[in-house]
Structures are given as C-alpha cells and as structure tokens.
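Researcher: I've been going back and forth with a colleague about how RNA-dependent RNA polymerase might be arranged in three dimensions. Neither of us has a model we trust, so I'd like an independent prediction. The organism is Arabis nemorensis, in case that matters for your notes. Sequence below.
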Amino acid sequence: MGSPYIFSGKSIHEARMHFMHAHTLPSLAKNMARFSLILSKTKMLDVYRTGINFKIINDIHCHDQHGYVVVDKNKKPCIHSDGTGYISEDLARLCPTDTYKGKCLRSANIQEACGQHPLNSLLL
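Model: Here is an independent structure prediction for RNA-dependent RNA polymerase. You can compare it with whatever you and your colleague have in mind.
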C-alpha cells in the first residue's frame, strides 16, 4: 500500500498551514483571496532554491496621475499585487513564455519581444 494522504489525521487548521501561510492572514476575506491563487492554473518553475536569495522589500504604493499615494476608505495606502510578490528579472526569464491561462501555445501564436523570438531565450 502507498503512503498515506498528506492531510490524513490533520485538523483543518493544520491543513491550511500548508497553503501559502494563509493562517497568518488577518481576515477570512484575505484568506479566501489567497486560497483562490493556489487553485489557479499555476505551472511549476524548475528552479534550485539554493542559489536564490529571498529578500523582503517595502510595498510599492499605487500613485494617481498627480503622483500622490492612492489610499482606501480607511486611509490605508493601496498596493497593486496578486499576492505573490515581486521576482527578479533573472527568475522571470526562466518562466515559460509559451503559456497563456494555463495552456501551452504554439510558437506561431507568440509575438516577438524586443526583436527576438521568445523561445530562443529559453535555449540560452
């Protein structure tokens, strides 16, 4: 018989702790918004974490057309984020360029970027 299911015998709280640290979020609404991200059509990026330095940076606030920070109804500065944070350019270059909404596109459907075919950068 195979190994037991990863969440067998775990409480709901213990199971939630495995998903993007959702247990640290301040409200159920934020928890559900974060949880929906893991149900998206995410592709695994094959990267060795030993060569990656993780750094926490300050939020980058949204600005209006006059350069002022945009705030919500509680006067809290707004940020534009999908909840996953920012990644460096070198990691972004490792991301597939032939995927849209979880589906692989044929290279004929991909437009050139900066005068270079996007798939060529994956071969470097």
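Researcher: What would you highlight for our discussion?
Model: I'd start with this: The two ends are 43 Å apart (CA to CA). After that, consider the following. The mean pLDDT is 71.
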